[in-house]
Write a structure and sequence with these properties.
Length: about 170
């Protein structure tokens, strides 16, 4: 158990550092890679909801501090954390919905995990960019940013999941 906690902390630190750098990158002026939400998606299903929400809030707050976005990521992360368990239950095959399971391509299967990650990534990006825009004046640009950032982030998250699970059996 302690080994898993250490792995999660290391993964969170690495992805937070990567995210701070990624927030300075805007591909084609619309797509921003968001990778740190993988840590929230990866939290064990059996982890108490209070811990999940607290961890997600703190991760979002750390990103907010480094990017000078007052509470936007913290709110988006907290809402994402509240959605993780219901989405896992909706997409994971019934025979693998056991406590202590870490959502991943290995544990859920490729298609189920893809739907899980897509839904959560799209939700997070939509909430974040709608909060940032806070208007429907440039709604087309906001939709483009949501779609492009969600697609880029999903590809990166699937890649990170493949790397984290390579050679470790169940991985983290």
């Amino acid at each position: 158990m302690t080994k898993t906690i250490i792995h999660f902390i290391l993964l969170a630190v690495v992805l937070l550092l990567v995210q701070v750098v990624c927030n300075k990158v805007m591909l084609l002026g619309i797509a921003m890679p968001i990778v740190f939400i993988y840590v929230i998606m990866r939290l064990p299903v059996s982890l108490h909801v209070n811990w999940v929400l607290t961890i997600a809030f703190l991760l979002g707050l750390i990103v907010d501090v480094f990017n000078d976005t007052p509470g936007m990521n913290a709110l988006s992360c907290t809402l994402l954390a509240a959605l993780c368990r219901p989405m896992f239950r909706a997409y994971a095959p019934r025979d693998i919905q056991e406590d202590g399971l870490l959502p991943s391509m290995l544990s859920m299967g490729g298609w189920s995990y893809f739907k899980y990650a897509l839904t959560l990534t799209l939700f997070y990006v939509a909430v974040l960019f709608l909060i940032q825009a806070f208007t429907l004046r440039d709604w087309l640009l906001t939709l483009e940013r949501i779609g492009a950032s969600a697609a880029l982030s999903l590809v990166l998250i699937l890649g990170i999941d493949s790397l984290v699970n390579t050679g470790h059996g169940e991985g983290l």
